Amino acid sequence: MPRTVAILLAAALSTGAQTSQGFPHTSKNGKATVVYQHDGLTVAANYDYSQKNHDAVWLLIDVALGSNTRFVLHRNDFSLVMPGGRTIKLASQEQGEADPNGINTLIQNARIHRQNLDGYFPQRNSRETLHFFSLPFDRHISNEGIVDNDRVTVGALLFRSVDSWREGTYRLVLDNERAKAALPILLQ
C-alpha cells in the first residue's frame, strides 16, 4: 500500500513538472487563473466561465498586464494555439459585429464568473482598459493599449472558432516586439 501511494505521488509530481516545463514562468492560482512573470512582465489570465462553458463558437479570456518596459499592445499581439497546433488570432471587430447576440450572451452568462485581476498588480494605482471589442455597455473601440509600470492594463479577449472548443490545454500567446509570454488555458 505505501508503495502504491509513493508511485501515485511521484506520477502526480511528474505531471505537475511537465506542465510547468511546457509553460515556464507561469503559476496557477485557482482553477482557471494563471499568471506569467518574467523579465519585468506580468500577465494574469482568467477564464473561469470558458473553462467549462466552451460549447459555443466564442471563448472569453480576461487578461491583466503590467511591465517594467513600456510598450504598445496591439490586438494582433494575442493568439490562442489549439492542442493540435492550429493558431487562432484574437477575433476581429468585424467578427464580433457579425454576431452581437453570441457575444452579448457570452458576456451576460460569464458575468458572475469573471474575476478582477487587479490584485496581481498591487503597486499600480491606475488602470487602463483594453477596448478591442464593442461589448455591452462599452462601445469604445481601440486596436491598442499601453502597458507599463504605472498602470495595470486589463481587458477581455475574445476568440472565435468555426465550431465549439474542445477540451484540452490551449496556449494563450502574447507576441509583441517588447514582450512575449505563453500561458496555459485548460478547457474541461
Could you explain the architecture of this structure?
There is one protein chain. By secondary structure, the protein is α+β, with helices and mostly antiparallel strands. The chain has one domain: Immunoglobulin-like, CATH 2.60.40. 23% of the residues lie in helices and 38% in strands. The protein contains 4 helices and 12 strands. The strands form 3 sheets. A 6-stranded mixed beta sheet has the order 1-2-3-4-10-8. A hairpin with a 2-residue loop joins strand 11 and strand 12. The two termini are 31 Å apart.
Distance between the ends: 31 Å
List the secondary-structure elements in sequence, H or E: HEEEHEEEEHHEEEEE
Contiguous helical run count: 4
Assign the CATH architecture.
Sandwich
**Count of DSSP E strands?**
12
- What is the subunit arrangement here? single chain
By CATH reckoning, the class would read Mainly Beta
Beta-strand portion reads 35-45%
Contiguous uncertain segments of 5+ residues: 1-19
Rg for CA atoms: 17 Å
**Average predicted local confidence, pLDDT:** 86
Strand order of the biggest β-sheet: 1-2-3-4-10-8
Helix fraction bin? 10-25%
> Which term fits the overall shape?
globular
Tally of distinct domains: 1
CATH topology: Immunoglobulin-like
- What class would the helix/strand composition place it in? alpha+beta
Q: Report on the biggest sheet.
A: 6 strands, mixed
